[in-house]
Write a structure and sequence with these properties.
By secondary structure, the chain is mainly alpha-helical. The chain has a domain of 52 residues: EF-hand (Recoverin, domain 1). The chain has a two-stranded antiparallel sheet with strand order 1-2.
Length: 110
């Protein structure tokens, strides 16, 4: 297969994955193209969790801060509730220590 086709497919997959959650990409939010996102340019969970994303507290989020914020799970779907955002729907999380095991017959592992 031609390398250009593979590159286009790969780029398309990354773009789809980035927008699947409803979040905007770094370049979408960096409206003035200065390589940083100001609080005024921010939207979604980035704006909601600004202090967490702006690691060096300089008033802007650069590409490395944005990537770290996303890697840490800071990006949740725009307008979405961050509660439960740590695990995909239907996934099984480890119950808190001392909690009761699920009742037998529920299909949950024992």
């Amino acid at each position: 297969m031609d390398k250009r086709i593979i590159a286009l497919i790969t780029a398309g997959l990354f773009a789809t994955a980035a927008s699947a959650g409803g979040e905007k990409s770094f370049s979408d939010m960096d409206k003035d193209g200065d390589g940083q996102i100001s609080k005024e340019e921010a939207s979604g969970s980035l704006k909601d969790k600004w202090d967490q994303a702006d690691a060096n507290a300089d008033g802007n989020v650069d590409q490395s801060e944005f990537s770290a914020f996303e890697q840490a799970g800071g990006g949740t779907p725009e307008g979405g509730d961050a509660a439960g955002a740590g695990a995909p729907s239907g996934s099984m999380e480890t119950p808190p220590a001392g909690s009761e095991p699920p009742p037998s017959g529920t299909g949950a592992p024992q």
